[in-house]
Each structure stands twice: as C-alpha cells, then as structure tokens.
Amino acid sequence: MAQYQLHVFVCTGGDTCPTQGDTEKYVKILRAGVAQAGRHREIRINKAGCFSQCGNGPMMVVYPENVWYGGVQESDLQEILEAHLLGGAPVRRLLYAPGVPGPNKIIKADKKA
Ligand code: FES
C-alpha cells in the first residue's frame, strides 16, 4: 500500500500558474479541507514546480489517478475537494486534456525563444 491514497500537486512554482491564481492559497484551502475531513493521512496536498503546461493554469494533478486539472479557479476548489478528493469522482468540467503527451506550453507571441 502506498503512503498516500491520493497525492495532489498544485503548480505554485512556475512562471504562469501563480499569476493566474493564488496557488499558494489553493494549497492552504485544500490542506485545510482534507484535514477537516480527517483524511490528511490518506490525501497529501503538495506544492509543485512547473508541469510544463504553462499558460493553461492554474494547474493541478492528482496521482496515482493521473487526473489533470487546468484553469482551476479558487471557486472550483470546494467542488474538487468534495467531489474528487473526498468523493472519488473527478470534476469533468475542469479536466485538462490537451491530447498531446509531454509539454503543452502556450507560447506567448511576445516571448523570445
Ligand atoms: S507554470 Fe504551471 S505548468 Fe508551468
């Protein structure tokens, strides 16, 4: 058995996700919700660096399910917490599915290569 049933990573350390939402606050909200539900020994919420999907954030990923969320707003967190992390049903409307494995950065026109 793994140490944690679910391991949630929130992109807090990249160049774009933290500008698209207060991802440090996201971590605090999710940790508090997991603790309040008494599931902190089963569900781990971690800060993470860039997932190389920049511009599609704020991004989160849940392992071992390999469920990716993009464009997550603070107002979405309670639904992700209740439906998915505690309830086991991913929030389909927030799924990130670019269809291309690997890096999927949105290249800004003004960004130099
Ligand atoms: S900054 Fe979040 S995926 Fe790159």
Please give a structural write-up.
There is one protein chain. The chain has helices at 17-20, 23-36, 77-86; strands spanning 6-11, 43-48, 60-63, 67-69. With 113 residues, it is α+β, with helices and mostly antiparallel strands. The protein has a single domain, classed as Glutaredoxin (3-Layer(aba) Sandwich), CATH 3.40.30.10. Strands 2-1-3-4 form a four-stranded mixed beta sheet, covered by helices on one side. A hairpin with a 3-residue loop joins strand 3 and strand 4. Helix 2 crosses helix 3 (77-86). The longest helix has 14 residues, at 23-36.
Bound molecules: FE2/S2 (inorganic) cluster
Which architecture does the CATH hierarchy give at level 2? 3-Layer(aba) Sandwich
Give the % helix. 10-25%
Structural class: alpha+beta
The domain count comes to 1
The biggest sheet amounts to:
4 strands, mixed
Strand content: 15-25%
- Total of DSSP H or I helical runs spanning 4+ residues: 3
Mean pLDDT: 93
End-to-end Cα distance, whole Å, is 44 Å
Fourth CATH level, the homologous superfamily: Glutaredoxin
Biggest β-sheet: strands ordered side by side in the sheet: 2-1-3-4
In total, the number of strands is: 4
Question: For this structure, what is the CATH class?
Answer: Alpha Beta
| N-to-C order of helices and strands | EHHEEEH
